[in-house]
Amino acid sequence: MNTSADLLKELRIDRKAPPPEPTSRRGLWITLGVIAVLLALAAAGWALFGREKPIEVRTAPTVAMGNGGAAASVLDASGYVVARRMATVSAKITGKVREVLIEEGMKVDAGQVMATLDPVDADASRALSQAQVEAARSQVANVQAQLTEAEANARRLSSLVQQQLVARSQYDQAVAARDALRAQLQAAQRNVTVASRSLAISDNGVDNTIVRAPFAGVVIAKAAQPGEIVSPLATGGFTRTGIGTIVDMDSLEVEVEVNESFIGRVQPKMPIQATLNAYPDWQIPGEVIAIIPTADRSKATVKVRVALAVKDPRIVPDMGVRVSFLEAARPQQAAQPKGVRAPGAAVVERDGAQVAFVVGDEDTVQQRALKVAGKLGDDVHVTEGLDAGETVVLDPPAELKDGAKVVLAEDTE
């Protein structure tokens, strides 16, 4: 009995137990998991072994070939670039600006119109002078006609007097009238001259409403706008005294203040070498123009004028400059060798040709075929294939190819 009861209990179904999952869904999850693991392993393997590693290299720059001796500097001083010809251009008369034709940085020629003033008053004055000239000429014509009649009357009476047909007094009156008209004609002609000169002055007044450049140069300041009042005199208030400022760039030179204790080292025509603060790598040759024969007692300095041998648009007024006074002029470089000076370790032989690897953008190298002229100690003279300032790879390894990625040796430390 007990055995039969136990067997019946084992056959009873437990409603609380979860039903078993289907075999097909469980296999699907297992397959997806295996695929994900394989993909992760593949990505990690590509990251570690598939990506090309950059080659570690050392580099050096190339420099331009050059020669020439150097002169010793006996004195160094600082100064500024100045212009010998600089003018703030103004009108000769007081008037209202009608138009301004200049802008900063604009080049102007001598006589070029920079601005115009309102010409209403000047035009009216000229019209009046023109009318006076015409009136004076009309007066001359009137007197001339009267004089012609008076001269004819005097000639007629002269013949009648000789024939004793008219009184002598009548002839004398005709002669006096003729002479008076001659004097009036001369006065009228002088009035025409005066009126013509007055017209010329009025023409100058009209021309004074046009402001022109006194010399060729570059506009460095624009001081007036249309509608403003300008005057050659400083009247105060809102009246402008100029239209603009122009500088003759061909007249630029350097003014240097030299300590009076060392002024004895400086001589006229002495060679110099100037370096602008804005371009420290640019050395400009020149010479001393003159030593101004006066000293500044407050600063104990003497002013020296220096001429620059180079005319360049990069040189502008008021730039700071460092001047080195030289013992002798630097010799002229008659024949500059072409090409660049490159480290000998950067030149290798590939496929029977001498090449070098130049580091370019994104740290990739470019293989260049070279033409080597000769050795310069540890360096070589390259005439073709390289430019000055380029970065080349030193001792390029055999695996280094064109377009390969590189990394500098110091960057990996």
TrEMBL record:
CusB-like beta-barrel domain location: 254-326
The chain's coiled-coil residues are 133-198
Pfam families hit by this protein: Beta-barrel_RND_2, BSH_RND, RND-MFP_C
User: InterPro entries of this UniProt entry?
Assistant: Beta-barrel_RND_2, MdtA-like_BSH, MdtA-like_C, RND_pump_MFP
Q: Where is the Multidrug resistance protein MdtA-like C-terminal permuted SH3 domain?
A: 342-395
UniProt entry keywords in alphabetical sequence? Coiled coil, Membrane, Transmembrane, Transmembrane helix, Transport
Q: Where in the cell is it found?
A: Cell envelope
Broad class of the protein's primary localization: other
Membrane spanning stretches: 28-49
Give all residue intervals belonging to the Multidrug resistance protein MdtA-like barrel-sandwich hybrid domain. 85-231
Which NCBIfam families does UniProt cross-reference here?
RND_mfp
- UniProt cross-references to PANTHER family, sorted A to Z: HLYD FAMILY SECRETION PROTEIN, MULTIDRUG RESISTANCE PROTEIN MDTA
What does the similarity note say?
Answer: Belongs to the membrane fusion protein (MFP) (TC 8.A.1) family.
Protein name, per record: Efflux RND transporter periplasmic adaptor subunit
